[in-house]
Write a structure and sequence with these properties.
Blueprint: E1 14-18, E2 23-25, E3 28-30, E4 33-36, E5 39-41, E6 44-46, E7 50-52, E8 57-59, E9 62-64, E10 67-69, E11 72-74, E12 77-79, E13 82-85, E14 90-92, E15 95-97, E16 99-102, E17 107-109, E18 111-115, E19 121-125
Parallel strand pairs: 1-4, 2-5, 3-6, 4-7, 5-8, 6-9, 7-10, 8-11, 9-12, 10-13, 11-14, 12-15, 13-16, 14-17, 15-18
Antiparallel strand pairs: 18-19
């Protein structure tokens, strides 16, 4: 009699914001995008994009379409699209993404597994003693050609 029509949620919109000064404890599951400027403790599962703002802090395993980190995340990341670490971003955990972009100044402590849409994967691991992202790939340099 009073049946509600379930409307389709657009994953391209951000409909949930955890504001600066707010603390959320528990599991978050969203069909649309999520932006965090406060503190979240608990896993996040999102059909849209997740953005961790510069003041945001998440102690969470995060699964989303695309993830941008400008704040701090302690936990593992799984994304079907791009993982982006901005110059202020810090990720202490492992990542599994199709695309990984790390800006100069960002911190990433963990291992990364990249899978293309075809299902092939590449894994890169970093030791805990490494402090910054290496930008050279010495295994590809032919030392006999270096001056």
């Amino acid at each position: 009699m009073f049946a509600k029509k379930k409307s389709k949620v657009n994953p391209n919109t951000t409909d949930t914001i955890i504001g600066e000064g707010s603390v959320f404890e528990g599991r978050i599951k969203s069909e649309a995008g999520l932006r965090i400027e406060g503190h979240v403790i608990g896993d996040i599962e999102c059909q849209g994009d997740v953005e961790i703002g510069e003041h945001g802090n998440a102690k969470s395993n995060i699964s989303a379409r695309n993830i941008t980190i400008a704040g701090t995340v302690h936990g593992n990341i799984i994304t079907k699209g791009a993982l982006t670490l901005t110059p202020t971003g810090k990720l202490y955990g492992n990542s599994n993404a199709e695309s990984l972009m790390i800006a100069q100044g960002a911190i990433f402590h963990g291992s990364s597994k990249m899978e293309s849409k075809t299902g092939t994967s590449v894994t890169a691991e970093k030791s805990d003693s490494e402090k910054s992202v290496q930008t050279e790939f010495p295994q590809y340099i032919n030392k006999s050609n270096v001056g």
